[in-house]
Write a sequence for this structure.
């Protein structure tokens, strides 16, 4: 803009028209200033126009300052409250994911106490209960986009909740599930060698993939007992679940900062 | 405590420090919103939202003019509000203002030096004309002529170049001039235009 004046005809009003306002504000370059002043010396119309623009500016400056109708100080409850402007529903989704992750941590944490007797009590349903744990612990859904998180987690939770009581109410042990815990050691002993061989590489592959695969009901799982490697896997699953919980809660707590940033970048 | 310290404390979550900033700038923010929106109640809502947004975003403030940063939030909020509420109305009025012929202006129409003595009617006229300007021109004129910001600070507030600021202010004033000329019959006789047409 500063160099355009060089190509302008100082005798033409159009050459200086757009420079009059910056000229009033002393925002023209030295060359532009010379161009404007040279033109104003011989153009009455533009001198008048310049004065009119000055009047407009003076009128704007004369506008009164409006009194503030109230204080805009923020109260503590205001800064904690979600803004009504942007996507408040995500807050509840994040909260739901965090709560779900907490439930999963509890379920997995209680796994070692419940799973051996339950699995021995009802091998078929016990396998389902065992399969349910990795699926519940699977972090893969939690790592998906937010919009998919609640649905995937809900499905897993439903499976977990369904699987958890099923061994206790298994058809083969309807009256006393706890006494059936006694056959557990033989069951563990039978399946231990193949379980070790079968499960050893899976933790390295990641609990997430294992959970997804097991969710499809892989038959080989029926032979898997609870063992030392299983406990290692359980520990990994628990760690993953705790990680999900921490990340979910963190995302929930940080949501406020992202939600109410400057309206435009 | 100076502004830098208040900003720093606010970034650490000190609500008291932030509210001191609110006290310092609430009149400016409210008046900018009021002149851009032309509605006191709406301006109050925008001002409140501006400070709430600023509080949550202040951790990401990386220096520079805090006033410009704050006004950028406010003006953007005004844009959003006006665009959602008055788009169709604004377009029609802007189209009408785009050509002087539509307003019955001629090359002989001129404002007079008497207009320097700004009356209530003149202020109402200029405020009314302000509301008819395109948003960016209106904001630039309000920030410079009404609020007294520098061109550089306006460029920072509006996230544009100095050349764009010059252009917006220049075009805004030119349109206001045309508007005042078109409204001269509504003004008292001493504010009417002499050039090319004496007062009746």
């Amino acid at each position: 803009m500063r160099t355009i004046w060089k190509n302008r005809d100082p005798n033409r009003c159009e050459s200086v028209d757009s420079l009059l306002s910056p000229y009033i504000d002393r925002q023209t370059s030295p060359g532009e200033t010379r161009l404007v002043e040279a033109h104003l010396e011989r153009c009455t119309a533009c001198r008048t126009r310049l004065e009119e623009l000055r009047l407009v500016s003076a009128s704007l400056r004369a506008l009164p300052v409006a009194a503030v109708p109230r204080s805009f100080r923020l109260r503590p409850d205001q800064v904690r409250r979600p803004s009504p402007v942007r996507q408040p529903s995500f807050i509840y989704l994040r909260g739901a994911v965090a709560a779900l992750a907490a439930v999963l941590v509890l379920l997995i944490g209680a796994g070692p106490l419940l799973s051996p007797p339950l699995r021995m009590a009802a091998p078929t349903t016990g396998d389902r209960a065992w399969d349910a744990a990795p699926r519940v612990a699977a972090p893969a859904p939690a790592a998906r986009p937010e919009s998919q998180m609640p649905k995937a987690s809900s499905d897993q939770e439903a499976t977990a909740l369904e699987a958890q009581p099923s061994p206790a109410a298994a058809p083969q042990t309807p009256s006393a599930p706890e006494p059936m815990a006694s056959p557990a050691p033989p069951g563990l002993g039978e399946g231990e060698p193949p379980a070790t061989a079968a499960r050893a590489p899976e933790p390295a592959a990641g609990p997430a993939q294992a959970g997804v695969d097991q969710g499809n009901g892989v038959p080989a799982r029926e032979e898997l007992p609870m063992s030392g490697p299983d406990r290692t896997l359980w520990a990994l699953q628990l760690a993953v679940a705790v990680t999900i919980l921490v990340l979910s809660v963190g995302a929930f707590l940080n949501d406020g900062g992202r939600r109410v940033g400057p309206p435009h970048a | 405590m100076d502004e830098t310290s208040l900003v720093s404390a606010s970034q650490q979550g000190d609500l008291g420090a932030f509210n001191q900033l609110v006290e310092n700038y609430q009149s400016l923010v409210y008046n900018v919103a009021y002149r851009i929106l032309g509605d006191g109640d709406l301006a109050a809502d925008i001002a409140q939202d501006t400070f709430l947004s600023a509080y949550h975003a202040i951790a990401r403030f990386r220096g520079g003019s805090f006033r410009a940063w704050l006004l950028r939030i406010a003006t953007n909020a005004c844009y959003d509000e006006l665009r959602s509420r008055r788009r169709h109305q604004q377009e029609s009025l802007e189209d009408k203002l785009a050509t002087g012929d539509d307003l019955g202006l001629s090359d002989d129409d001129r404002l007079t030096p008497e207009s320097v003595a700004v009356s209530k009617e003149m202020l109402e006229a200029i405020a009314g004309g302000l509301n008819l300007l395109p948003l960016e021109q209106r904001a630039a004129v309000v920030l410079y002529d009404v609020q007294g910001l520098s061109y550089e600070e306006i460029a920072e507030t509006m996230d544009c170049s100095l050349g764009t600021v010059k252009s917006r202010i220049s075009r805004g004033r030119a349109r206001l001039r045309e508007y005042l000329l078109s409204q001269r019959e509504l003004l008292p006789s001493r504010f009417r235009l002499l050039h090319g047409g004496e007062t009746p």
Observations:
- The interface with chain B takes residues 1, 18, 20-22, 25, 27, 45, 48-49, 51-53, 55-66, 68-74, 76, 78-79, 83, 85, 256-257, 259-264 of chain A (CB under 8 Å).
- The two ends of chain A are 26 Å apart (CA to CA).
